[in-house]
């Protein structure tokens, strides 16, 4: 299943949105890489098992399920999470890119690539649509948490 969508971070036409700069958004994404628990409901533990300059290997524990992933950082541009395929987890990837499509507009582009089938006529098609909706909601929550992190770090 390939799924891609954009979540608006800054939109000059929406005065209700607190403007975030690229550095604040990037810091929030780094927080998600270092400890994903505030971003992923049900995640009980996030342990970094390897670290290099622009890469982390993590173990994520959801109850009895353990997911191992590799996080690749492209500083100030994007972050890619690649989970390993196991008997209990299908594997896949999520790339989150910071984009500025117009002056004053800042968005996050979420790109998912999974092994889950989504062909028309497939019995799994309805479930794929449910998964896409869940991903979208999770991504909205990611931006909400990034906003909370940014707000907590600002001097009032």
Automatic annotation (TrEMBL):
Pfam families: AtaL (PF08982). InterPro entries: AtaL, START-like_dom_sf. It comes from the Bacteria. CDD domains: SRPBCC_DUF1857 (cd08863). This is DUF1857 family protein. It comes from Aromatoleum anaerobium.
